[in-house]
Amino acid sequence: MDDIRFAVLGTGGIGRRTLEVSQHKDGLTAVAACDRNGVAIDHGGLDVDELLAATEGNIASGPQDDGPGDVATDGGAAAAKADGVKQHGDQSGIVASEQGEPTETPIDDIITESDAIDAVLLALPNLEHDFIPRVAERFAEADYEGVMIDVLKRSRVIGMLDDREDLLKESGITFVCGAGATPGFLTGAAALAAQSFVEVEEVEIWWGVGLKSGYEDNRGTVREDIAHLDGYDIETAREMSEEEIEELIDDHDGVLEFHDMEHADDVLLERAGICDAENVHVGGVLDVRSDEKPTTTTVSVTGTTFDGETGTNTFELDDVTSMEANVNGPALGYLKAGVRNNRAGHYGVFGPADLMPGF
Ligand SMILES: NC(=O)c1ccc[n+]([C@@H]2O[C@H](COP(=O)([O-])OP(=O)(O)OC[C@H]3O[C@@H](n4cnc5c(N)ncnc54)[C@H](O)[C@@H]3O)[C@@H](O)[C@H]2O)c1
Q1: Please, which of 128, 136, 220, 343 could form a disulfide with 75 given CB 3.0 to 4.6 Å?
Q2: Ligand 1 atom closest to residue 92's alpha carbon, by position in its atom list
């Protein structure tokens, strides 16, 4: 495949690692990146090492309204910003890089340059659920022709993207949704594991993440996960101060266990015709005080074969593979699959399971 020029929207924990991992993949050139305060664009290729060094421990996390059609996206807590934990006001994030320019319209600045961008990876917070669909809409309204890909988690967002499918198609956008680890990598694994069966009864996804050394860089993700705990929802998680989050983590000795999470693996497997969404269960364990995974990540697919046997196919990740490796490797892999489809004229909304063998 020809060289792919791509942009990253959001250079928090996930977006930074996307840039880093892309350096280990063939044919990918990062040409643009933005966060809530700034933008860096170089169509000849960004100096990724410099950008990573400048934003190390200095992520522009937290809410930002970047224009009229935008919303405050709270991925890393307004409170974190107020605490000055690792942000430095308007100087946080990309603007600390030699390549970064301050801007009040980071996403629009990238849209303006999008003719020369083949793919856009959205590593934006998703506590405002229609934020990513509305960003997609803005690209479509500007007649962007290319790939957009997100690593969002919540099931309800997929429908919001489907609602915009006609607009995306008209523009020539191939949108790959839910293409991180779960949903994403593990949804694709479930689709593959299902191929032994003619009928799938159940898909169980159980993940383990150890995040000690990556905790500072992944506060946005941890906050989103907290919304899945009993007694919490998106609103309460959004409003929590950093101290309240630390307190909650202390109360759990650093280990949070989640059951029946609203992860889009369910709707993504259903829309690919593999099984009903209600038969997909996602849970997992997050340890923010150890890099060791508290539990092994597994996908178990139970079904019946054409000749009447009932079995369970299991896909297991090695405990040494980090969350960042398992989100960004697949996201960039799906980005490449998206570009192949886009160049073949396949536009619209695709889930990770749609890019696997059919069922
Ligand atoms: N599918 C998976 O397996 C998986 C795993 C981990 C994280 N995620 C998702 O990845 C996303 C990013 O998580 P994170 O931990 O990197 O978050 P983060 O809070 O660390 O980073 C978010 C970034 O978005 C930027 N941003 C916020 N509002 C913006 C705006 N209006 N315009 C431009 N930039 C803006 C911030 O400045 C920051 O750079 C989340 O939605 C999370 O749920 C998915």
Answers
A1: 220
A2: 37
Pair of tokens at residue 130: 């229609």
Distance between CA 175 and CA 169 in Å, rounded?
9
Q: Is the CB of 330 within 6 Å of ligand 1?
A: no
Is 139 within a domain? yes
- If you measure from the C-alpha of residue 246 to the centroid of ligand 1, how many angstroms do you get, rounded to a whole number? 20
Percent of the chain with pLDDT over 90: 83
Active site members? 153, 224, 228
Per-residue model confidence as pLDDT tens digits over 134-158: 999 999 999 999 999 999 999 999 9
Q: Atom 42, ligand 1: which residue's CA is nearest?
A: 221
> Is any atom of ligand 1 closer than 6 Å to the C-beta of 295?
no
DSSP, residue by residue, 31-72: EEEE-SSEEEE-TT---HHHHHHHHTT----S----STT---
Reported ipTM exceeds the 0.90 cut: yes
Query: What percent of the residues of the chain are helix, what percent strand, and what percent coil, each to the nearest 5?
Result: 40, 20, 40
* Number of domains within the chain: 2
| Residue 305 DSSP class | -
Considering the domain architecture, whether residues 45 and 139 belong to the same structural domain is answered as yes
DSSP per-residue codes, 116-166: G-SEEEE----SSTTHHHHHHHHHHHTT--EEEEE----THHHHHHHTTHH
Q: Which of 36, 71, 90 to mutate to test the pocket of ligand 1 (most atoms within 8 A of CB)?
A: 36
pTM (2 d.p.) = 0.92
Q: What pLDDT band is residue 90 in, cutting at 50, 70 and 90?
A: low
Domain that holds residue 211: 194-319
12 is in an annotated binding site: yes
pLDDT average, residue stretch 205-221? 90
Residues 257, 151, single domain; the answer is no
Query: Could you tell me the CATH number of the domain that includes residue 118?
Result: 3.40.50.720
